[in-house]
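Appendix B, Record 12. Input sequence as logged:
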Amino acid sequence: MMFTGIIEEVGTVVSVKRGQASSLLTLSGSLVFDDLKLGDSVAVEGVCLTVMSLSKNTFSADVMHETLKRSTLGSLKQNGKVNLERALPADGRFGGHIVSGHIDGTGTISGIKKDDNAIWYTIHASKELLRYIVLKGSIAINGISLTVASLTDLDFGVSIIPFTAQMTTLSTKRVGDAVNLENDIVGKYVERLLNLGAGTSSQARNQTGNQTSGQSSNQANSVITAEFLAKNGF
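Logged structural output:
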């Protein structure tokens, strides 16, 4: 499934039933229920969840331990507000960027300020998350597709129009609040492809006893290199 980061509506948390290491969320809304079915995927605050029960204007979804650890869903409370987006249909309009609904981690809002008709949000994040963030690139914050407007070694910033704040849960956020972050998936795939040769060469060295350096073997075995990407416009 795929999402675009264009929020359809803000829903409400009806109930949260907590287990030992998981939880069951029941959420209400209106727009997303137009054609929602059991088994469908819905991004809740940017987290892809599966509809396991459904009524006229509520649905329930299980949240597993790993998801609770990586996202803010564990802090949701009754009557809280959440961003909702259904998975993109094959004939849907692609208005944001490719969003998988698989959260990479959380960041913390360290600053909110007005800039004429825009609102700047500064997000503090770990180095592991910042390494994939590119100035003028895409980032999903609580499931919202946004453009990175500033970037440092400690944080990044986004500048949004009032409409985006009003139509999403960003309008309820304050300095110190945690937000879900999903990096642009393209960068993660590129890194994975560049590192494939390293794994292959390492295995070959273990089997043959070859003492050739990892860097040399990686260059020899990797099909995709930094030079290849540069020549092809990446």
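The first strand starts at residue 9 and ends at 18.
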